[in-house]
């Protein structure tokens, strides 16, 4: 009887497995699909996802947050955790992000970055370049296009790339966001070429996004399964759907 009871307890305990994931805010819109597809392969898995700017998530990991997998917006943040002893492996690239320029105020985006010099453009929203790689890429693009000095006083920094999107839709004249957000069904009313355009990728360093298994996930088999899924064909197909490169 005792053996039967113990077996039942173990069966229940193993029935549902949790995985705590820290992920860069730019993958927000892809995560519903990621969860759904991963669940098909691992029906008992429960993915707990915390989304935010990569820099802030790194700080949380170093302060003891119980994350087991980290999906960063660039390789530096992910590899930094490995070098500092918080991750099990060097970062692997799971996708390459793109920057989009968005405006819902009727500005002619076909002019490219030159539109930012228009006196009617009062506010330019970007993610904080200190903590969000998409913000860093935006500043780099402005400088490479030779317009940074002319527009720098118009720039407003949002806390994360998702906040940059929100602020652009609510109040900003022009915003620089993760292109992935524009491929969400929720954003279907905004049209490429009219409401948003992709920034020339030659203007900024490739946004290679890195994934690592953190030390907290060392003994969680689900961490390795999720890691392999993200780097596998099913994971790539989802990211491709949301406008990422490889």
Which terms would index this structure?
five-stranded mixed sheet, 246 residues, 10 strands, disordered N terminus, alpha/beta, single chain
Explained architecture:
It contains nine helices and ten strands. The chain has helices at 2-13, 31-41, 54-62, 75-83, 133-144, 148-151, 161-170, 221-231, 233-241, and strands at 17-24, 45-52, 69-71, 92-97, 99-102, 124-127, 155-158, 174-178, 196-198, 207-213. The strands form two sheets. It has a five-stranded mixed beta sheet with strand order 2-1-3-10-4, sandwiched between helices. Strands 7-6-8-5-9 form a five-stranded mixed beta sheet, sandwiched between helices. It is globular, with a radius of gyration of 20 Å.
Q: What shape does the CA trace take? A: globular
Outline the biggest β-sheet: 5 strands, mixed
Task: Name the poorly predicted regions.
Answer: 1-15
**Helix/strand order:** HEHEHEHEEEHHEHEEEHH
Total DSSP E strands: 10
Q: Tell me the Rg in angstroms.
A: 20 Å
